[in-house]
Design a protein that fits this description.
heterodimer, A: alpha+beta, Immunoglobulin-like, elongated, B: about 220 residues, mainly alpha, Arp2/3 complex 21 kDa subunit ARPC3, two-stranded antiparallel sheet
Chain lengths: ~190, ~220
């Protein structure tokens, strides 16, 4: 191998790099947060693309016990109402070795209420006229609105955190050159 | 194509890692001074090829180029691809460090298989036939990798037939693209540097001296 073939290889590598899209739709990312009394979360690929509707998300407890399974809706979101104040682990299997997992600690969980009392309370508050908003209901509304507003931001942040930058690629190529340079040194000394 | 941390059961993980280490030992023994540049180059090509994405349905797949690495390197593909995979795991978060052994096996073992099956054909006297061998080598390496991924997922609990169907079918476009890429690369190597493929044929050296003039 001469300098010519090496430069040819570098050319091929550069060409491939140029063809590469800036973002990467390979890694599966998942995040979850408290919204009102529920946990809301999203599953998608690191390109910002969301998981297919109907993708199942398993909710597991700290010892691996299953709390339930929810399906992802059209926007790649899922919702779950926690019943116990324990860490919740969300796991989605998108097939072909694509696995995503995220855990919400106890202090990140939404306030937990007994399911029966919730439905009993929820009915009258929903029926009440908007002028009679209680401070709690207002708070919940604000929380929902804020969550909705920051959702694109969060998505963008996740995408950004998982996207490759040119310096990563160049750094990797530099490492490869260095490692094989080192091998040259070792093998040349051995002779 | 990279399996993620936590997708495989422990026995599969340990078995795959052990086999990958054996492959690495064999590969490092086969490595000599003259082959280091080729190994480094193909390691870099593999490292960068994974960033070329082919969008398919909800997911997207990337090129692997393990067929070409196998054709040129044989067993040396193990260390070369291992280094590429390790850097991908560290820098891009592809796969993970615990599954590094299994991923190395999935990508390097088909490369070695392709070396034994297609190397002779690729180094044959007729250029068009060699390109055909190279194309099938590129496609075959992907198919074998997909099958291995499906088998490992099956051993870890996922049903084999649907997993294999999903992985194999979704990789058909990648197989086609890699077939073309591999054929093009081999045609170029045969013209410019036939000794990379172990060819010592005299007539091709004439072409080798002419080719750079045409290129520049």
């Amino acid at each position: 191998m001469s300098a010519r073939s090496l430069s040819f290889g570098a050319l091929v590598a550069l060409l491939l790099m140029w063809l590469a899209p800036p973002a990467l739709a390979h890694k599966v990312v998942m995040s979850a947060w408290a919204l009102g009394e529920e946990i809301e979360g999203e599953v998608g690929f690191s390109s910002g693309e969301m998981a297919a509707p109907g993708t199942e998300v398993d909710i597991l407890g700290p010892d691996g016990e299953r709390f339930g399974t929810v399906a992802v809706d059209d926007e790649g979101l899922f919702r779950f109402r926690p019943r116990q104040a324990v860490p919740h682990t969300f796991r989605a299997n998108l097939g072909a070795g694509h696995l995503a997992e995220t855990t919400l600690a106890v202090d990140e969980l939404p306030p937990i209420t007994a399911p029966a009392s919730v439905s009993a309370e929820a009915a009258p508050s929903a029926a009440a006229p908007p002028s009679a908003l209680t401070p709690e209901a207002l708070q919940a509304l604000i929380a929902t609105a804020v969550q909705r507003e920051i959702r694109p931001l969060r998505r963008e942040l996740t995408r950004l955190r998982n996207s490759q930058r040119l310096h990563d690629i160049l750094g990797g190529l530099g490492y490869i050159a260095g490692i094989f340079g080192l091998l040259f040194f070792v093998y040349a000394r051995r002779r | 194509m990279h399996i993620v941390d936590g997708a495989l059961s422990l026995p599969v993980l340990l078995g795959g890692t052990t086999l990958a280490i054996s492959g690495l030992v064999v590969g490092t023994r086969a490595l000599d001074l003259a082959r280091i540049p080729a190994a480094g180059l193909l390691s870099a090509v593999f490292f960068v090829a994974s960033l070329v994405h082919v969008p398919i349905g909800p997911s997207s797949l990337h090129l692997i180029m393990n067929g070409l690495a196998g054709l040129v390197l044989g067993w040396v593909a193990f260390p070369a691809l291992f280094i590429g995979l390790m850097l991908q795991a560290l820098l891009f978060g592809f796969g993970g460090l615990t599954v590094l052994g299994v991923n190395t096996l999935n990508i390097a073992l088909p490369a070695v298989a392709v070396y034994y099956l297609c190397r002779r054909g690729v180094a044959g006297p007729q250029a068009s036939l060699a390109a055909l061998w190279a194309a099938s080598a590129g496609a075959l390496a992907i198919a074998l990798t997909a099958l291995m991924v499906a088998a490992e997922l099956a051993l870890s609990g996922e049903a084999f037939i649907p997993a294999a169907q999903l992985v194999l079918l979704s990789h058909v476009p990648v197989m086609v693209i890699e077939g073309f890429a591999c054929a093009a690369a081999v045609t170029l190597i045969r013209r410019a540097r036939p000794e990379v493929l172990g060819m010592t044929a005299a007539p091709s050296s004439e072409v080798a001296t002419q080719a750079p003039q045409v290129a520049s």
